[in-house]
Design goal:
single chain, 166 residues, globular, 7 helices, three-stranded mixed β-sheet, mainly alpha
Length: 166
């Protein structure tokens, strides 16, 4: 991604946020508003009709929701999930949103929110992760970071996580 495109997209996003509502009804934009506009600008995703809630829960509960009860794994393996039924991004209680890496988690889960709202159909659950990881990686790149250094996620892991095996 070149600087001119990134700067132009950032200016367009700020302008859109500033003109989204009249002065009388304008509320401060949220990070999810910014992420939504960025995803729309970068990947031509539609605009969601509403923003998801962000719900914190214990890491063990996230792990159980992802893999089922009784899984023997590191509870910190799952840091967030998107719950389409509740229209909520579920994050670990340790999540603070205080770093570029932690915000990138919202970027990843917001892709799933867009996918759910648009009714996108996938060949398998892994396929839906492809754009989510790409958007997360692009977000991190804007700030000079990457998935490997932020989360220990290398290209081979992404390949395995995003390919249908049936």
């Amino acid at each position: 991604m070149n600087i001119v495109r990134t700067t132009g997209a950032a200016i367009a996003l700020v302008a859109a946020l500033c003109t989204h509502a009249s002065a009388e009804q304008r509320a401060a934009p949220t990070i999810l508003d910014f992420i939504s506009l960025w995803l729309h600008s970068e990947y031509q995703l539609g605009s969601p009709s509403s923003q998801p809630d962000i719900v914190a829960m214990p890491s063990a509960e996230l792990l159980a929701r992802r893999y089922g009860e009784g899984i023997d794994s590191d509870p910190d393996e799952v840091v967030a999930l998107y719950d389409a039924e509740k229209e909520a991004i579920l994050v670990s209680k340790s999540w603070t949103g205080g770093s570029v890496a932690e915000i990138s988690i919202l970027v990843h889960e917001m892709v799933h929110h867009f996918q759910a709202e648009s009714g996108t159909i996938f060949a398998c659950p892994a396929e839906r992760e492809r754009l989510a990881y790409r958007a997360q990686a692009d977000w991190l790149e804007l700030f000079g970071q990457d998935l490997q250094s932020a989360f220990g996620i290398d290209p081979a892991l992404i390949l395995v996580a995003t390919v249908c095996t049936h």
